[in-house]
User: Fold this.
Amino acid sequence: MSHNHDLGEVNGRSNGVQINTNEHKLNYREPAKDKKPSLKVTEQLSQLRSRLSDIIQEHHDDYYLHKWLKARCYDVDKAETMYRNSMDYRRSVGAETIIERYEPPQVLQEYLTGGFAGHDKEGSPIRIELYGHLDMKGIMYSAKKVDLEKMKVVQCESTVRDWKKQTAKLGRRVDGLTVIFDMDNVGSGALWRPGLQMYLHVVKVMEDNYPEMMKRMFVVNAPRIFPLLWKICRPLISEDMKNKIHVLGGNYSSVLLEYIDAEELPVFLGGLKTDSDGNPRCSSLICQGGQVPTSYFLTNTADTSSMESTCIGTGEKFKMDVKVEEPGSILRWEFFTEGYDLGFGIHRLGDKGKAIDVLSSRRVECSMVPEDGHVVCDHIGEYVVTFDNSYSWTRAKQLYYVIEICTSDSFTENDIDDISKRGSRTRISKSLVTTKF
Assistant:
C-alpha cells in the first residue's frame, strides 16, 4: 500500500502550496537486524571513536556513534563537534539524573500536552502530541525557556530508558520513536511566530542531542492551514527529519494500525486502548492541555523586541490600512500597552468608501496580558485596523503591536529567517494615520 499525500490540498481545499512528504511506501516491515556498515563507514566510525577517546562513554558502541555520523551527513569533523557539544549540554542540564532530580513547574505538568501511550509493532515507544490543544502562548508566558528545554530532555531520556527495557524484554535491540502528531483543533493561533520559534527550538534540542531518535511521525487531522504551517517550518527542519514525516488523510486509523497494534493505540485515534476508567483519550498517559489560566503567568513576559511600537496621544486614534489581495486571507493581531486599556476595531472599505464593520470597536484591557486574535477576510480590498485612545483626555498610551496578513504565499525566505532568529514582526506594508479629536 502506498500513501502519497499532496499537502497543497488539505481537507479538499487548495492552499496554493505543493508539498509532498511521503514519496515512499509506508508498508509495515518486521524489524531488520543490525546491518554491518560499509568499509568506508567503518573507517569513519574508527576515526570518530579515536577523536572522541577523551570523552566517549563506554556504552556508546558503533551503532550509537553511527547516529552522530548520519546526523551530520558522514562528516567526521561535524559529527565530533556535535558529540562534544552534546556532552557539554548534557552535563549542564544533568541529563543522566534529570528524571529523578528535576521537578517541572506545575503549569507544565498540567498544560504541556502529550505523553507516551504504548509501543509500536517493533517495540519502540509511541508518543502522542496534541498540538491543537497546546496553548503555546500561555505556556511561554508561564514558564521559562530552560524549563521547556528540560521537559524535552526528560522526554528523550524516558525514551532512552524505555529502549533499554524493551531490548531486555524482546531480546533484540529496540530503538527509535514513533510520534503521532494530532492537529485536531489547530487554528490560526498556531501561526503565532514566537510560539513556532519555541516549538522548533525544543525539537532542535532533541535533534542535536538525541540524533536519529525519531523513527517516524504521523500527522493526523491536518487543518486547512497546514500547508502554510509546513511552508514556515520546513526550512527549519533537517532533511532527514522531513523524510520521516507522513501526513495522513481521513483514513489515518487504518494506516496507524499497520504500525501499531490496536491494543496499543488510544480509541480516539482508532485503536482499542483506554484508561482504566474507560476514558478513550487516555488522559492518565497523555496530558490534554487546554488554555493556561492567567494566574500562572509570570511578570514581564511580553517580548517587545519583535514588535512595532508607537505612542498614541490623548484623544487620538492610530490607524493602519491593510490591503487584502486574496479571499480567505487571515488578518492576525497581537498588541499590548504599558498601562491601561485601549479601544480596538477593524472595518472594511466597501463601495464608495463606506465603512463596514469586521470587528466592532471595543475597549480592551491589554496592559497585563497581550491581546491577540484573528479574522478571516472573505473579501479582497482595503481593511482598516484602528487603535482608539480618543476617550482618554489625560493619558497617552505606549502601544506595542504586530499586525499581519497570512496567506499561503505570504512567507518569504527573509520571514523564515526571522522565525529562526527573532520570532514575529510586522511584515506588511503599512500606511499610518493619526487622527486628532
About this structure: The first strand starts at residue 9 and ends at 10. Residues 179 and 217 are 5 Å apart (CA to CA). The domain at 103-295 is CATH 3.40.525.10 (Phosphatidylinositol Transfer Protein Sec14p). The mean pLDDT is 84.
